[in-house]
Amino acid sequence: MWHIPKDKQYPIYQQIIALIENYIEEGKLLPGDKLPPERELAGLLLVNRSTLARALDELSARGIITRKQGSGTRISEDKWGVFTGQKTNWRHYVTQGSFLQATPYMDKMKQLLRESPDDVIDLASGELPVHLIPKISTPALSWQSFLAEEDSEDTAGYQPLKETIRDMVARDHDVQTSLDQIFITSGAQQALFLITQCLLTSGDAIAIESPSYFYALSIFQSAGLRIYALPMDDNGVKLDELEQLYRKHRIKMVFVNPTFQNPTSLTMGTKRREAFVKLCAKIQVPIVEDDPYSMLRFADQPMPPLLKKLDPDNVLYIGSLSKVMGSTTRIGWLLGPAAVVTRLAEARQEMDFGLSIFPQVLANHVLNDSDFDKHIVWLQETLKTQRDALIAHLPEGLTYRTPEGGFHLWCHLPENKIWTNRDFDIFLEHKLLVMPAFLFGIKEPSIRLTFARLNETGLLDIQKKLAEIIIS
């Protein structure tokens, strides 16, 4: 295993770095695996210890390995602060549907879904099942009519859809925007991709909530960005922690999901939002506000204002239809300053990642359909019922905060033992698919349960399996 083909084009220490990185990508080295002692590893590689030490110092600086006196060198189990410096395969990251980083846990879960889909209980997938997607007819347009609609499209998207989104955000969120500040994308992923590629530079530092589904996106590190954890409390991100991150790492951008946050389902309070945007404006750090769940609120009381409303100039707002129309509906939108929209639209055109007219026309038709608002109300009620059913069948020992919207329930397991990443495999052994906390960047005994795909006939099985796992 420990053999490097000597390549005179590159220094030996760089070849050692490449070897270890390749073994990680291929799964030969897993998170938490321990490397041989330095003297032994130098002998296996047939290099002197100073050359090996230089390679390990570089890997440690990038966050790829961790070195502790007395406990040796291990492959890092998280990616906070990791800098890969790698170039992005643009087409791969724009077109693929999921950005979840490959991990042994995820590989095993996907294998279970492939091999025995009828035997598993899926509380992990964060997508709507088919029966909850709106049954709205498609517009009766001929091929020629679709082609004619392209005349209403510019590089930033289909004009009628932009008008619909402008009116929708004004009605639902009291956010006033103009058409030149709206950018239609093929889903939230494309918006994030273009932001990382066009507005940031390799080596830049960004902050994301901790825990956060952003942690599972390989798109950030593939752009050469360093990500840093921004801890939260019950009201949202901690502002003192943000100030410290800015002073220490010169954070260039903050990515947040402040409404029914994934995975915790927490909603940042109004006062915290106001203080957050004020601080970011003071330190001149732009905010990316990802908002996939705000249509799915269960209570009647008003929601806190969007960050975009509180500071229109310093917030890029991303919306999407995927959580109400299904993941195959790849339509999203970004609201930002006109200059930013123009830059992103031109970059997308240069990359030849044009957006098809078909999903844009369909999305515009759906948003203007008289039954769409009725469907949203029905979906809210259905998800609330499924949330309540899941909570009613949770065994003693699990603690949680009841979510007021979205898809997810964030549960804390009893802290009567230390949970390593591999310990969460017990859920897979019980054929109960959940998302452990480590996938979201934190090491604690917590799991995300998604009630959007809940089958009520399996509630007793869920209760039984969770109880068995807790007492094991």
TrEMBL record:
One of the Pfam families matching this protein, by short name: Aminotran_1_2
Limits of the HTH gntR-type domain: 10-78
Record's keyword terms, sorted: Aminotransferase, DNA-binding, Pyridoxal phosphate, Transcription, Transcription regulation, Transferase
Keyword Lipid metabolism tagged: no
Keyword Transcription recorded: yes
GO molecular function, one term: DNA-binding transcription factor activity
Cited InterPro entries: Aminotransferase_I/II_large, HTH_trans_reg/aminotransferase, PyrdxlP-dep_Trfase, PyrdxlP-dep_Trfase_major, PyrdxlP-dep_Trfase_small, Tscrpt_reg_HTH_GntR, WH-like_DNA-bd_sf, WH_DNA-bd_sf
Family: In the C-terminal section; belongs to the class-I pyridoxal-phosphate-dependent aminotransferase family.
The protein's name: PLP-dependent aminotransferase family protein
